Task: structure prediction
Amino acid sequence: MLPKILVVDDDRYTRTLIEQLMRKSAQVHLAENGEEARKLFDAIDFNLVLMDQRLPMDKGLELLREFRAQRPKLVAILITGFADVRDAVAAVREGLFDYLTKPFEDLEALEAVIGKALEIDSAYREIDSLRARLAIESGAPDVIGQSPAMERLLGQVREVAALDTTVLLEGESGTGKDVIAKLIHVWSLRSSKPYLEVNCGGLPESLLESLLFGYEKGAFTGAGQANPGYFEKAHGGNLFLDEIADMSPKLQSSLLRVLQDHSFCRIGSTQPRSTDFRLICATNRALVGEVKAGRFREDLYYRINVVALSLPPLRERGDDIIHLAVHFLDRYNSKFGKQCGPFTPAAVRALEACRWPGNVRELQHCIERVVALEPDGVIDARHLRPTCGEQTGPGTQDSALSLPALAYQDARAEFERDYMRRLLEAAGGNMSEAARSSGIPRQNLYVRMKRWGFVTD
Ligand SMILES: Nc1ncnc2c1ncn2[C@@H]1O[C@H](COP(=O)(O)OP(=O)(O)OP(=O)(O)O)[C@@H](O)[C@H]1O
Ligand SMILES: [Mg+2]
Result:
């Protein structure tokens, strides 16, 4: 279904322009004044409102405040003339998505801003529906993902969760293997039974062995009393062995026997005990390569590689980046009692351009840092540095031959920010002087300086 946009402007030209621009990708509703706008807003759940500041009977910003009282997460863009800069800044401070200045010079940019606003709206909606779903499926981890790659994966997870097969999760570090393992448990028929997880790379061999197999009293020095292991405790449920590639050769062969026989002996005992758990394994190294290199038993590999699910890296997950960013923004705002956000269009672009070598975990830490350290209010591209700034791609500055790694829009934004900073420095902070030397009209310059955070009210 197409998203619904409300355009409120008394100027017929502006209304028609936006309608024509968005007609193919959205259902556009038009209102000439506040009264018409209120009626439409009451009747339709809009994904985005574009509101002119100067209406015949109303002030656009006041009207948007009214709308937001009804729907706090409404995504809106205020359309202003150059004379209304203060309102525009106030609007963004209050958490509206953005403002646009009339007349619109660059239609592509206009379309891009509207597109981003719609993405933010869909992120808010997804998170709300996720919350509702979680209330039903309690215990399920938050899993954000509506990119085609993640939708495919989640479909596979649903299917295999209900089957009793062993699952191998492969993916770069931070892509969400732990989260998916937990989801398999929650969605499985064993969800009311235990879920146990252990990181095979994090423990010395003997400790891991006693944790998995358990031991009898006196089995080794310090074994004061008998202790059941995870193979026993996970009976009826799911056992998650994380970083399976790090398991020692000795434990690999012990595990193979357990999987073949569905039974094991506690350390210090020769009495076999039967067990019934479903195994989920994860690795961030390609297990085939480990087999070839002789570090992982081939027979064990075939045992655990019954259904292999591959987690896509974040950089291949398109819109998920923004959805995850909004999700983490929400989470850390409530955790730290802050009101950071929303993201500016430049911030959205910076998030999307980043390579995220540490995947979702890195994005999560980036947003946590911003919310913890920055004051309340909009999050701009500059707040996301150094994480996003440094990784927009290799060879950005120093190789004249390679293609620029930044998208044109980002490169232009980068240039403008740098230019504005140096201009203001050269003019000793004097705006009139800066306007004179740059040839940019003062009012226009003020808006741009504001946008980059170089001047405050
Ligand atoms: N789809 C997602 N939605 C929400 N949060 C996610 C998602 N995927 C990952 N996360 C979060 O990102 C962080 C890293 O995820 P996780 O620990 O599952 O990654 P991993 O693939 O197991 O990493 P490693 O290989 O380093 O063990 C966690 O805090 C997790 O909650
Ligand atoms: Mg993990």
Observations:
- The chain has three domains: 4-128, 148-311, 316-451.
- The chain is about 50% helix and 15% strand.
- The mean pLDDT is 87.
- The two ends are 42 Å apart (CA to CA).
